[in-house]
Amino acid sequence: MLNPNVVVCRLRKLQLLVHYCPILKPKTNSNSVPSFCFGSASKSTNLYSLNKKISHLVRTGRLSEARGVFDNMKHRNTVSWNSMISGYVKRGEMGNARKLFDEMPERDTVSWNLMISGYISCRGKGYIEEGRNLFDKMPERDCVSWNTMISGYAKNGRMDEALRIFNSMRERNVVSWNAMVTGFLRNGDVARAIEYFERMPERDAASLSAFVSGLIQNDELDKAARVLLEFGYKDEGREDLVHAYNTLIAGYGQRGRVGEARHLFDQIPFYGDRGKKGSGRFKRNVVSWNSMIMCYVKAEDIASAREIFDQMTERDIISWNTMISGYVHSSNLEEASNLFGKMPNPDTLSWNTMVSGFAEIGSLEHANDFFRRMPQKNLVSWNSMIAGYEKNENYKGAIKLFTQMLLAGEKPDRHTLSSVLSVSTGLVDLHLGMQIHQLVAKTVIPDVPINNSLITMYSRCGAINEARTIFDEMKLWKDVISWNAMIGGYASHGFFEEALELFKLMRRLNVRPTYITFISVLNACANAGLVEEGRKQFKSMSSEYGIEPRVEHFATLVDIVGRHGQLEEAMDLINSMPCEPDAAVWGALLGACRVHHNVELARVAAEALMRLEPESSAPYVLLYNMYADAGQWDNAAEVRMMMENNNIRKQPGYSWVDSSHN
DNA sequence: GTAGGGTTAG
């Protein structure tokens, strides 16, 4: 067993570790530079190839290696500095970028633009202002600088500022217009996006695909389709017009409209033929095929997905990964493994798909095997494996891996933290949960799901006031899960009035309850002995909200009315059930019969239980005791005989029986 | 090496 105190102690240390050194110091690698001498003839070629090397390393995310090369260069030009700066900018390490920018001997337009872009695209205090500051100070601004400002403001939701920049530009190019259209769409202003799209003096393929993609993000799928039909031919034909079509195919797929996606996919060759001589020529590319696979995968039509996949003459890594994920999502890990074995160069994403696939179906050994063997892990790899342990209730494994992850220098994100919060909930370990809560506060901006996990954790651990604090702090940013977690927390900890009070508030605020809400509400009624209220809530479920009661709701209502002595009503309820009553339902009835000494009905309930759970001794024992209490010794003896005949041994504890009789 | 657009994993 894992000692919780040890875990807490270890976590506290690791927390400090994460807090004080979130990112490993860049390793400088002097061996990565060839040690031949730099003659004047080879100087420029060396400079060129080293610059290329830096940009390659930066592109592949190997920033510390790039820095190593950079530091060891004898001669650098502006491109060397700019490449290095771009690496830091891409990672959002503006401090490091700024240091280089300040140190570099000569800055060109690209250097300034890089810094401006880094600052203004960063969500963070003061960054946008600093970007603006540099923009204002910049000696010779080019079109890229202006466009950077537009898209930066747009990314941060400040379309008013973006517009001001746009309006003060003397010369705009197509990118300026595209950035405005994209900005409006990103901020949900479809009307103005349309206006600007129509006002554009010229449009290129990017204008069209950006517009289409933005419309789709705003759930304007049909508008997007119309735009494509209207402008798709007319516009100067560029091969990359297919981008826009690919977007729409994927958009259809995302919303389950596979038929339309397929239609568009099939039409592309015809669109391409329209302007056969000269313009308007484009054809399906690998992304079109991949998107089509994805559509079928989303629609859980794996056979069709495979058909597309098999028809492809050229596949890229995304084709393979999408197809594999299709098999993973349909729990066909055999075929997924088969494809994984066949694919040319599986990348981290491929490995992650396999890890999460096996974890999802509960094969932790296989998941772990893939996880251990993968050549390169990323945050998703760790998260998938940790989530796998958590979902399969291997909490010890989850915590162990989480610890290893922190030790490996990987910084947890909301996915990690949400998993380990669930671990705390599963272990009902308040101390662990509080530690994770602190980590949450330091690491992420809490969103609704994370707050919900916190509410669940605190309420499950009995810290109902802490749960309520989080709940109240969420203000308007609650969803139905938040309400369910809080109401459920109250109901399961004996705060029935609070549970029902909160439920009333929820209804007043027009939050639609779910079947889970009603389980808690009925539970509260049951435990508070509120018979009439219970009946009323049960009825309102279907009459007011159209939620058909499930077996859990019936079980609770049977418990409510049964315990109140309304055994006939309880039996009628069972007979009226649209689904098969389960052990919980019959158990509730049996418990009620015991309290109210109704041996006849008890026998019915007990026999049903014997059928449903042939191994369990509980119904026999209960029935025996009831007959004995009633002095019906013949019947009691009969039950004992049945027990012996069926080879049932008495075992302690029956969870479904009324707790007061346990 | 800098500005706008398409497909895959938790």
TrEMBL record:
A GO MF annotation of the entry reads: RNA binding
SUPFAM superfamilies recorded:
TPR-like
Q: Give GO terms for biological process.
A: RNA modification; system development
Which Pfam families does the entry link to?
Answer: E_motif, PPR, PPR_2
Q: Which Gene3D superfamilies match?
A: Tetratricopeptide repeat domain (1.25.40.10)
Extent of the PPR repeats: 77-111, 142-176, 241-275, 285-319, 347-377, 378-412, 479-513
The UniProt keyword set, sorted, is:
Repeat
Which PANTHER family does the entry link to? Answer: PENTATRICOPEPTIDE REPEAT-CONTAINING PROTEIN (PTHR47926)
Question: What's the superkingdom here?
Answer: Eukaryota
Keyword Transit peptide among UniProt keywords = no
Q: Which parts form a coiled-coil structure per UniProt?
A: none
Tagged with keyword Repressor: no
- Family stated for the protein in its record: Belongs to the PPR family. PCMP-E subfamily.
Q: What is this protein called?
A: Pentatricopeptide repeat-containing protein
